[in-house]
Design a protein that fits this description.
Radius of gyration: 14 Å
Number of strands: 2
CATH topology: Alpha-Beta Plaits
Shape: globular
Bound molecules: adenosine-3',5'-cyclic-monophosphate
CATH class: Alpha Beta
Number of domains: 1
């Protein structure tokens, strides 16, 4: 996902450009907005964390871009491309270093495993929307 902060700041095009330049193929994509219920479900794994309320509030405050990306070693390579969760710790040139302001408002989300990538893909897309 390209998160609400990056959308608000006009970074959709630049982020997609970095993603495709890094060799990822976009097999599904949509511009949408999460409801509170959607965000609570998507981030259910974090529901006991102190930042959960803030995370749901942030992720629902404006539109996002959801996408499914395909590549060999996609999960690890995407995490390298986006950089550390906290942009202060993200490597130079990574998407979060370039476009994120804080650990909470960190511009992009990437799945942390192939298993979660499948779950998160099904959360956002039906079979007819995946190419
Ligand atoms: P993401 O990779 O989407 O996965 C969980 C999200 O929770 C994370 O990016 C951040 O947006 C948010 N998050 C993680 N840690 C914190 C924190 N300490 N404070 C606020 N938000 C956080």
């Amino acid at each position: 996902m390209i998160k609400p902060d990056a959308v608000e700041n006009g970074h959709i095009g630049a982020i997609l450009d970095k993603i495709t330049a890094a060799g990822f193929k976009i097999v599904a994509m949509k511009y949408t907005q999460l409801s509170k219920r959607d965000a609570e479900e998507f981030y259910a794994i974090h529901k006991e964390r102190p930042f959960f309320g803030e995370l749901v509030e942030f992720m629902t405050r404006g539109p996002i871009v959801a996408a499914i990306l395909e590549k060999d070693n996609a999960v690890d390579d995407f995490r390298t491309l986006i950089g550390a969760t906290n942009p202060e710790e993200a490597a130079e040139g990574t998407i979060r270093k370039l476009y994120a302001a804080s650990i909470g408002e960190n511009a992009v989300h990437g799945s942390d495993s192939d298993e979660n990538a499948a779950i998160e893909s099904a959360f956002h897309f039906s079979g007819r929307e995946i190419f």
